[in-house]
Amino acid sequence: MAVDHDRNEAGVATGDDAERRLDLLLDDVTRTAGAHIGQTYLQVPERHVLQMTTSIGAPDRLAQSWSRIALAAPAPVPEAVRSRSPVWIADRQELARGFPRVALAFPYTVAMYAVPLATDGDCWGALLLMWPGSRREGLSAAELRRIGAAADRMAQVLRDATARRRPVRPREEPLVLDPKPREPVPVAALVDRFSDGFAELDRRGRMTFLTERAAHLLGGDRAELTGTDPWDAAAWLRDPAYENAFTSALVNRQPTAVTARRPDGVWLSLLLCPDATGISLRIRPEDSGENERDSRGEMPRSVHRGVRAEEEVLSTPVRAGTLFHLLHLAAALTEAAGVGEVAEALMEQMRPGLGAQGLALTVVDEGRLRVIGSRGFPPGMTEYFSGRLTATRTEGVRTVETGVPRFHRTNAALLGSYSRDQGFDAVKAFAFLPLTVSGRTFGCLILGYDRQRPFTQDERAELVSLAGVIAQALERARLHDVNAQVARGLQEGLLPRCLPHVPGVEVAARYLPATHALDVGGDFYDLIDFADHSAAAVIGDVQGHSVQAAALMGQIRTAMHSYARTGAPPEEVLAATNQLLLELDSDLLCSCLYAHVDVPGRRVLLASAGHPPPILRHHAHRAEVLDPPPGLLLGVDEDPCFQTADIPLPRGALLALYTDGLVERPGKDIGDSIGLLADQFAEAHDGRLDLLADEVVAHAQKTADQDSSDDMALLLVRCDVAGCEGAGADPARPGESEHGLPPTR
Residue 303: helix, strand or coil by DSSP? Predict the structure, then answer.
C-alpha cells in the first residue's frame, strides 16, 4: 500500500532526506535502464530478512507479496547480498536452473538484475530491476556502468545516513511510487458506443479511466470505481487466478485473457493488453447462449478456454501471497531430509516471509509437548511451550487435542490464563495451528506477532494451508530420521568402538556418513595389535550404500583380523580376503589398503587392492603420496596378484589412510585432489592427531558437494620409536609423546 505523504514534483514522498534520495535514485535508474519494475530492498539484521522499502512499476498488492525475503532464502536478491556480487537472470529458464524455488513461485518471463548496495565492506541491501521478456544478450557495458553507478550512489546514501546516526530502515509497507500519469484519453466518447467495456489501469493496478459500460459490467458506479483496482471493486474477482492474470500481463508484458463468472451467473471475458505505462482492459460479456448450461448442466466448451475449471469462485477469497508462500514452502521442505532441516527451513525462510515475530514448532512426544524448533520468542515463553503434559489445558494442547486452529487477535485471553508466565505480554497476537496428517494431529505450529493482528479470513485460510504443508513434510522427516537412526546404529555397530593402544603408535580415526544417503555405507577402518610393537592399519570401501554393503563390510573386517593374526604378510592377507568374497558370491566389490607398521624396524609394509594411495608426512613437514604396487579390487578375480611395498618410516612420521569420499569431487582430477590433501598434511602443525583429523574432515566437508552420497573415512597413524620399549632412544614419560602430548587413541 502506498504511503500517503506529500510528494515533490518527481512524485516521491518527502520526509527523511536519505529515504527521499533513495527513492529518487530508484526512479531514475529504473527509467534510464529501461526497466519496467524497480525495487529497493534493505537489510533488517535482527530479523535476518531483506525488506522492500520502495517499488515502482508494480501494484501495491503485488509489491506486498514480494515485500519480505529471508536473507537465507535461495533467491536472486538474497544471493546478491550474501555474495556481494550482482546476479543476472536472463529469462525464466535461467531462473529455474539457478533458483528453482523462485521460478516455481514466480512463473513469469522476465529478465532481472539484482545488485548489492555495498560500500566499505558493508552491504545495506539490494537494488532489483526487471525487464519484460527475454534479454539473452544481457546488459550492455554502458547499462552495467549506469546501474552500477546508481547502486553505488544508493549505498553511499545509506552509509552517510548511518554515519549521521540516522540509519535508513525499511518501511513497514513498501512505498509504491506513482507512475507518471498518461494523457487523457481523447477517444472516450468513441469507445463508450461499443457493447464492450474498456478500462485503463496504471502499473499499480488502479483504474484511471473506465467507460460506463465497463462500470456496468463490473457492477458498480463509474465515479466510485475510478481510482480503485478491479478486485477491490468487485469482490468476486479476488480469486488468485484473476489476480495472476493481471500480474502475468504486467510482468510478462504480453496480452493475457481470462474468463470470470459474476455472482449472477454471467460470464465475462477479460482481455488485458499491457505496455510501458499500464494496462488496457477490455471487458466483454459472453453470448447469452454461452451463459446457459447445456442439457447435461455443463458449461459450454467455449467458456472453458483459458478459464478456471471450477464452477464457482472460491467462497473465501485468498490473498495473492497465499500461492507464493505455499509454493515456496513446499519447494523448501521438499529438500529437507530430517526434522532438523524442516525446522531450519521454517525458521530461516518462512518466519520472515510470514511477518511473524516468533515461530515455534512443537510435537507430542511421550505425553508431552516438545519444542523441536523455535525462533523469535522470549526465552521464558519457549521454555513454557516445551515439556508441557498433554493433560494440561494450555492453548497448544487444546489445539492438538481438537485439531482446530486457534487465533488470538490480542494477547488478552492468554494473559488472563498465563499471567504468571514470563514473556506473554511481549507478544501481542498468537496463532496456534494444528499439524495434522491423515486425520491425526501430532503437533502444533505456534506463531507470535509483535502487534495486534486481525487475522482476516484470507490470512486464516493461508495459515491453515501452510500448516498442512508443514505437517506433511514433518511427518516424512520424522520417518526419515527414524530410518536413518536405525541405519546409522547398524553401521556404528560394525565399526570399531575404539582402537587398541599400541606402544609407540598414535592413532586417530574419523568416519563421516554421506550427506544425503539414508542407507548405510561400506567404508571401514581398523587397527590390529600384534603385541610385538607392530600393528596393521586397514582401510577399505565396499561398493554401494545398502544393508548388504554394511554386512559385507563386517565380514571383511572379521576375516582380515583372522588372516592377519596368523602372521601372514600383507599380500597374503588381501589374497585370502579376496577368496572369501568370491566364496560369498557377492556382487559387491571392495577396495582395501593394508599397512603393516613395524615400529622398531621403522618401516611399513603396504599392499593395495585398488584403493587410493596413502600419504606419508615426514617430521620435517614434507608430505609425499606413496605409490604401492596397484592391485585389483577384492572380488574381481580368482587369482589376483597382490604385491607388498617396503617403505621406510622415519621417526615421528605420519601415515594417512583414507577412502575416496575424502578426495573425490565431481569434475576434478582425483590425482590433483590427493595432491592437495598431501599439501594440507605438509602445512599442518605438529600436535594432537585428533585435532588434525577434525581439521582434515572439516575441510573435506566444505569442498564436498552438498548432495554427496559418498562416505568419508580417515585413519591417521603416527610412529614414535621412543614410545616403544627397547628401541634404544630416550623414552618419553609414560603416556606422553615426544611433544609432551598424550597419545591419541
Answer: helix
